[in-house]
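Section 5.1 Outputs to date
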Amino acid sequence: MCLVGPLWRKFVVIEVAMLGAWVRVRGTRAYISGHVACNRDGTLAKPLGKVGTEVSPEQGYASARLVALAHLASLKRAVGNLDRVTAWLRVFAMVNVAPGFNETPLVTNGYSDLILELYGPDTGAHARSSIGMAIPLNAPVNCEAEVEIDG
């Protein structure tokens, strides 16, 4: 699933073809697998490529926001209601970087900023790593996350 809209409570959930278990719920924790930015039809969102050459840092930031939306969609499918999230605990962001590009945190801010906008600092604040590497499918950003949910 992908989400579209200004705030998650107003999002329209769009079903897309996604294979596999994207969220593992265990007790009060939900572990969200790596996601990349997607379109409504489930295809990879453009642009694709390395941040710092084919993709600008601003485009990378926008891609990271789309990854957060994809996480929210998968999380909603797994737990039923996004109001069950009591804390965003950890985000591990991987940015597809060109040689010499070292501003991965600025790209990853797209993800974190959206989560903080939606959940506020008490629930949305999270630990985060942002590293540069080659990403499968040539996607600009791939993130994993862990959240706490109510029992």
